[in-house]
Amino acid sequence: MRLPLLAALLLPALAAATPAAEAEWTDLTNLDVWQGKTDGWVVAGGAKTDPKNERRLVPEPGKGVLVNDLMKRPRDLVTKQSFGDVEVRLEFLIPKRSNSGVKLEGLYEIQICDSYGKKELTGDDCGGVYPRAELRPRYHYLDKGVAPKSNAARRPGEWQSLDIVFLAPRFDAEGKKTANARFVKVVLNGVVIHEDVELKWPTGHAWTKKEVPTGPLLLQGDHGPVAFRNVRVRPYAAAKK
User: Is 75-239 in CATH node 3.40.50.12160?
Assistant: First the structure.
């Protein structure tokens, strides 16, 4: 079959499939989908670094972007909906030296922070699987987490993309864990930084908490200025079709 004829046959099918595939995504870029009070967060049209202070963000008029305000003591954003195997896509923007994160089931964190240009990486760098930690006597790490394969972080003040494919832990009928959670793939700014990373326990100081088959998505908002846009999720089973 000649190429032009093959393309003519395939293009209508591809065009018809696109809306259905997009419909599988759930948009989380509004405040109604998050639990409890969302004080300290605003819906804006954009965000940029404050020209008077490079460590702060200034929201811009409009809709579609979630921006926190540390002066109002923002809480973490936690979805009302729970997820198991899931694909997450979002974009984020942080100013210089800021810190945030994305937690699957509220327990397993991919770190967001300003690590532009850094050579030696750990799980505490942007895109890393955050280390285990303890709060007392002072907050301290128990390991180095899982460093990203390479430093794909952009300069602070620039929008960055993060795609995560996550497999939830498995349990038998009695509730005993039979398989650990996994990050199937994590892509930062178009660069694959993790593939098939097994999670023997939750990250950070949550590592002793009970693991569950489903849980909410958490966007960290109390560690530093951050903006999120195009936050979307869909079941991983749908993503594999």
Answer: no
